[in-house]
Automatic annotation (TrEMBL):
<feature type="domain" description="PCI">
    <location>
        <begin position="21"/>
        <end position="133"/>
    </location>
</feature>
<dbReference type="InterPro" id="IPR050871">
    <property type="entry name" value="26S_Proteasome/COP9_Components"/>
</dbReference>
<dbReference type="InterPro" id="IPR000717">
    <property type="entry name" value="PCI_dom"/>
</dbReference>
<protein>
    <submittedName>
        <fullName>Cop9 signalosome complex subunit 2</fullName>
    </submittedName>
</protein>
């Protein structure tokens, strides 16, 4: 069941249906977690990606299912990305991407959506700056 939900999540994310993708990735993550599959960490990364793309103010690691993985070495970079993204800290976001290039950018699915995240955070940062006088 996890594979089906993961594929559904990927399809929805590519179609810009971020909430549906988030739901599918969360269900896939839970299925993988219950069965002890190592795919759970990859799916959790996708869940975090969908969470950021849907511009949710809720940290995905606040859920009881995801919380135990918050400091997992494979997940830590994504944990930090969420915090910088939600704080609209473009400098920290770019630094995390640079320092964790292998962990984040080596996944082709995540890599194809990083530009969208960068555009979102740059737009937010620009909109939050004080107006020119």
């Amino acid at each position: 069941m996890g594979v089906i939900r993961e594929c559904g999540g990927k399809m929805h994310l590519r179609e810009g249906e971020f909430e549906r993708a988030h739901t599918d990735f969360f269900e896939a993550f839970k299925n993988y977690d219950e069965s002890g599959s190592p795919r759970r960490t990859t799916c959790l990364k996708y869940l975090v990606l969908a969470n950021m793309l849907m511009k949710s103010g809720i940290n995905p690691f606040d859920s009881q299912e995801a919380k135990p993985y918050k400091n997992d070495p494979e997940i830590l970079a994504m944990t930090n990305l969420v915090v910088s993204y939600q704080n609209n800290d473009i400098n920290q976001f770019e630094l995390i991407l640079k320092q964790n290039r292998n962990n984040i950018m080596d996944d082709p699915f995540i890599r194809e959506h990083i530009e969208d995240l960068l555009r979102n955070i740059r737009t937010q940062s620009y909109n939050m700056r004080p107006p020119d006088k």
